[in-house]
Amino acid sequence: MSCLPLADVAPAGQAAGWITLGVILVAGLIVGFSDVRRLQFRRIWALSSVCFTESMRRRVLLVTPLAIAGLVVVSQLQQASDDQDAIRQTAKFCVFASGMVVVITALILACTNLPREIENRVIFTIVTKPTTRLEIVLGKVVGFARVSAAILLTMGIFSYGYLEARNYFRVENVRAQLESLPADAAGRATLVHYADRGFLETRSVNLASDFNIYARPPANGLHWMRGSKPQYFLVHFAPSEAERGVLAAAAQAGAEVDLLTTLHLEWMPLSSAEQTDAERLRFPPLHPVPPQPFGPSLLPHGTHADKPSQYASVLSLRIVDGADRNLVAPEDLGANASFLPVVDSQNGSPSGVLSLSSKAVGQLADLPEFFVDVASPSPGVEYGAGPLPVVLSIPSANGGKGMIIRPPLIDGEPEPPKYSGRPGRSGIVLSDAFNSQTLAIYSFRGASPSIGTGQTVAFQLNAKIEKTGDPTDSNQPLSVAEIQVVNAHTGKSSGPLRVTPEINRLTFVDVPAEDVAGGDFDVQLREMADGQWLDLQPDSIVLITADRSFSGNLFKSFLLLWMLSILVVSISVFCSTFLSWPIAIVLSLMLLLGRWGVAQLGDSLNPGVGHTVSNEFFSRDPTESKVVSSTVEALAKSLRIVSSIFPDVSRFPATEDLQRGVSIPLSTLGGAGEALLMYGASVVIGGYMILRFKEVAP
Amino acid sequence: MPTSDHAVQIENLTKVYKDFWGRDKVRALDGLNLTIPRGEVFGLLGPNGSGKSTTIKLLLGLIFPTAGRASILGQPAGNTAINERIGFLPEESYLYRFLNGEETLRFYGRLFKIPRKELNRRVPALLDTVGLDAKSRKRKLREYSKGMARRIGLAQALINNPDLILLDEPTTGLDPIGTREMKDLILSLKAQGKTVLLCSHLLADVQDVCDRITILYAGKMQTLGQVKDLIQVRDITQVQARGLDAEKVRQVQEFLGGIGVSDSIVTHPTTTLEDLFMRVVRENSGNGSLPRS
Predict the structure, then answer these.
(1) Structural domains of chain B, ranges and CATH numbers in brackets
(2) Where are the alpha helices (DSSP H) in A212-271?
(3) What is the ipTM of this complex?
(4) How many helices (H) and strands (E) does chain B have?
(5) Are A313 and A409 found together in one domain?
(6) Domain tally for chain A?
């Protein structure tokens, strides 16, 4: 359900990045066309060789033994849960340490070099040769890129050797364990797998394109959410300017604006836990008719009169941002917003109507996007949602046709709601499948399965297990999950496949290849063990498409680090063209970490932050509230835009895939290359233009 | 208009240094006009802060003029392309201290795109010319004495066989032998038809090698002309003769008195300390020649 703060502005920021590069490129060509014509790679290489030689003779490579010593100490002291975890942590440490060393070294070298040459006037003997300023800047960048490559080569060779050595000893350890393990012991299959193939595995995988949690498998176009369970669904709205104008007018006129919900209801048997909770909370029963405020509209059209023991069906509605924060204060939303009586939808008619307050409508008119969060506290009631479960209705003032505001269209269809559950320690919780119903569905579209021997394809399950009691207690029953693959084209199902996920370990599941034919299929996952639940991420289930070499993946990781270091060098050289080296280091760090820093603010900068702030601090005075809201909104927007044109260092993910044993896709390398080209070229040209007009004689 | 008959042409060249806020701080050069023909050794003289180095920096494009213009070998000053034909020795040897002498020359040679084969020939020859022996050329520059640093600095200025050589305080840090070698080298460059612009405050050195000089003071040209014309004392006549004893000296003075010269001085001329130093070193060197410093 989260909507990353920079996700919205990333495409715009990317476009802005390319436009900025284009503008800088044109400006650079206008300013330095003659220098471009004189550009000679031999001179650039000569200048870079001086940078490289200087760094080597200043014994820069001594940082690598220091890093290696630290790395060995840390990896020996690590608290790994098992052998696989130990190897993975070591791989992560290796890449992380290499990244830190190369980035810090590149930053310091590149920031200090040019100011020092200007200060000690070595630059005199360079610029009085037929060397253009463009060649000087490029020479510095290439030179320190070569230094980075030398550092990474040293660290890479050590990392590979160290990981291979650790893997060797760990595999020997596993083999020893296997000799003493009973043949039917739990987890033996996994140990055999590691004994055969080692821990340094790398695979190519396909990720699911969507991931939802439902109360039961979707059927007949309905997706189900269970009341009182920590389930909910989010309906996304992004009203157009015109729609927001109508909302604003309705708010001013005090006209009625309704949130209409259209849901199917079913009363299901209660689990003992649900029954206990309902009684503890004294939840109003369905019969007799509960007193106000549940109201006569709760009457279920007589269709459920045979369920005297069941509970009333109510919804809890909120209007939230991508970070699940209220954009409209619950008390302003409208009467009964958190206890909205609903009835079964009949002939498409709304099953629950929430009349929004004028204040809430006014606030919605200011929001370019928001989500309607729909949940239910009703024990045992399941809600079936069609493709359009929530709309905003604005009746016409003169009795004519009003306006309906719907979710935005995707491929001509309304954007489907996102079904989810409460967050656990390591992901979204998939609770035990009461009545074998609650499930997570990973939807794969356009996947490219690789069929192995035996006409099967393999899935990898990586879910954290939560359970009541001590999770490390070996006497606890094993977690049991059930996986079923349903082909989206043929409807053919693999049938339920039982697996026993283990804490912090991968689990592999083989499925007949025909079930994934065509590449469009859904993987249904249920937790079957009582009192246990799985914490799921969007990549908790992936389709393995190929086995890859670990060394190749390690190389790709270091290649990403090298590209990152070139970006660091480019920015540092740029800053050093107009600043003294200490200030250049500070500015380089700010440019490199600015976007990351804004991202750390989380969803605080999402649209709606103004309302959140004004609601919390200035809710009593509407005028003041409006001013604060719009000011905060504008500041947040400015910060998002500024940060979006900073380089995105998250596009150089060197550790994540390596640590997960997943082959780094070429698209990741391409994305890193794109970021490097976009920002690196821009700052290099910018640095050249500054140096072109700089008097280098102090 | 600048013409390529002149190595350097300067028209109304002015440089005003500004402070952080863009206000005028120092007028380092004020409307300098100067022309240096090809093949001349020209001296730029003046006390510290007179504008000598500023003029050199402007000619090389290290700083930009506030007003006026300058051209070198027919091209605007600061044009990167013309640097192919210029050699520059800064007032101190601003070189990469972690490279050795040979690496330094090879590096600068590569900036001129001199082919490797040619560099293999030119680098040792230049090191010989400036008097750096085989042992010195393999040492890092940070280990060089000041004199050795000047020599390698001069070698890098000559690596491209330039038409115009700008030497900023070329003899600073050199011992008398090195100074003499530097002056001999300047004269040999002149003999090769090259133009040399040197700036110095060691007037004796300038006097020995320069065809013309200008003296700058407070950013302005104070005088300009041939060295021999500028230093000539026109109202005093010097007669030199060898082998006059005291009696003959008295007779010469009587004769001068007889023709109405009342304040004549007849004395023995002195040599320069440099000549004395050279003679003593040469006589004690064993083989009658000067050792390399």
Answers:
(1) 6-231 (3.40.50.300), 236-293 (no CATH)
(2) 241-253
(3) 0.85
(4) 9, 10
(5) yes
(6) 3
CA distance A129 to B112: 7
A565 min Cα distance to partner chain B (Å): 24
Contacts of A131 in chain B (CB under 8 A): 80, 83, 111
Same domain? For A237 and A316 the reply is yes
**One domain, residues A38 and A150:** yes
Q: What does the alpha-carbon distance between residue A690 and residue A31 come to, in Å, rounded to a whole number?
A: 10
Is residue A287 in a domain?
Answer: yes
**Phi, psi (5° rounding) for residue B74?**
85, 0
Q: Is-contact A415 A524, C-beta < 8 A?
A: no
Question: Of A41-45, A505-509, B229-233, which range is least confident?
Answer: B229-233
Does the beta-carbon distance from B112 to A40 stay under 8 Å? no
A327, A465: one domain: no
Question: For A533, how many CA atoms within 13 A lie in the half-sphere containing its CB?
Answer: 23
- A235 lies in the same domain as A348: yes
Could you tell me which of A335, A407, A344, A420 has the C-alpha nearest to residue A375?
A420
Tokens standing for B277? Answer: 């130093």
- Which residues 35-94 of B are in CB contact (within 8 Å) with A? 57, 60-64, 80-81, 83-84, 86, 88, 90, 92, 94
In residues, how long is chain A? 698
Cβ within 8 Å of residue A474, ≥6 positions away: none
Of the residues A538, A572, A595, the one at which a domain ends: A538
On whether both A247 and A98 belong to a single domain, the answer is no
Q: Are B200 and B174 in contact (CB under 8 A)?
A: no
Residue A146, classed as helix, strand or coil, is helix
Instruction: For chain A, give the longest Cα–Cα distance.
Output: 97
**Residue A261 placed within a domain:** yes
Q: Does A55 touch chain B (CB under 8 A)?
A: no
How many beta-carbon pairs below 8 A join chains A and B?
Answer: 79
Dist. CA B83–CA B103, nearest whole Å: 21
- Structure confidence by residue, pLDDT tens digits, A44-102: 999 999 999 999 999 999 999 999 999 999 988 887 777 888 888 899 999 999 999 99
Same domain, A217 and A325: yes
- Alpha-carbon distance B80 to nearest alpha carbon in chain A (angstroms): 5
Q: What letter does residue B84 receive in the DSSP assignment?
A: G
Q: Contact A336/A389 with Cβ under 8 angstroms? A: no
Please give the average per-residue pLDDT across A211-222, as a whole number.
91
Looking up tokens 């007018």, which residue turns up?
Answer: A249
**Amino acid sitting at position A613:** V
A421, A450, A465 - which closes a domain:
A421
pLDDT tens, residue by residue, A392-412: 998 776 666 678 999 999 888
The CATH number assigned to the domain holding A506 equals: 2.60.120
Whole-angstrom distance, CA of residue A563 vs CA of residue A148: 9
**How crowded is the C-beta side of B33, counted as CA atoms within 13 Å?**
2
CA atoms of B28 and B49, how far apart (whole Å): 7
DSSP single-letter state for residue A604 = G
Within a domain: residue A141?
Answer: yes
CB contact under 8 A, B94 and A120: yes
Structural domain includes residue A613? no
The alpha carbon torsion through A684, A686, A688, A691 (nearest 10 deg) reads -130
A528 — phi, psi (to 5°)?
A: -105, -15
Per the structure, the complete domain to which residue A564 belongs is given by: 9-194+549-603+643-692
Cα end-to-end distance, chain B, whole Å: 45
Q: Which amino acid is at B149?
A: A
Give every CB contact of residue B20 below 8 A, 6+ residues apart in sequence.
none
- Nearest CA to A682 among A649, A643, A645, A653? A645
A344 SS3 class: coil
Cβ within 8 Å of residue A221, ≥6 positions away? A386, A387
Residue A31 forms contact with B (CB below 8 Å): no
Question: Is A407 in the same domain as A447?
Answer: no
